[in-house]
Write a structure and sequence with these properties.
By secondary structure, this protein is an all-beta fold. It is built from no helices and 12 strands. Strands 1, 2, 3, 4, 5, 6, 7, 8, 9, 10, 11 and 12 form a 12-stranded parallel beta sheet that branches.
Length: about 150
């Protein structure tokens, strides 16, 4: 009646390469600015700014994130997020709190999780173009220093 399947584990059970944490913003650290690139990031401190990440983003129990824009392949929230989330997969753990809208293809919560916002489920969420590294922007006329009168 019950028996183990032959052939080992399926590919869906093996974690994708984007599901590894490679950088940590530890508790006690407060960071303001934007974050973009690829890899896995865990936030245990406070972060204020936009995030565009090709990979995993974990907001730990002590993590506090305030952003207008959060894009990542996978977002796991065990701390607090104030801002909208767009990701292929979103998990809100029992200790997680989210104030913002969520756009995702896969959504899961644990009992006790909190979400104040709307969830929009999509067949696919494309974050490929969003997570590209930011390019340098040429300074505007307002940013240039005034001409030197001695020249």
């Amino acid at each position: 009646m019950f028996r183990k399947r032959e052939g080992g584990t399926t590919s869906s059970m093996q974690p994708a390469p984007t599901e590894r944490v490679t950088s940590v913003l530890s508790s006690g650290i407060i960071w303001k600015g934007d974050l973009s690139g690829s890899g896995g990031v865990r936030i245990e401190g406070a972060f204020e700014g936009n995030i565009s990440l090709r990979g995993l983003l974990v907001i730990g129990e002590t993590g506090r994130l305030t952003c207008e824009l959060l894009h990542a392949n996978v977002v796991i929230v065990a701390g607090a997020v104030r801002g909208d989330i767009t990701a292929e997969k979103v998990e809100i753990r029992a200790t997680g709190r989210v104030w913002g809208d969520v756009i995702t293809a896969s959504f899961a919560t644990e009992e006790g999780a909190f979400l104040r916002g709307q969830i929009r489920m999509e067949d696919q969420v494309d974050i490929g173009e969003i997570a590209q590294p930011l390019t340098e922007i040429a300074p505007s006329e307002d940013d240039k220093p005034p001409p030197n009168p001695e020249e």
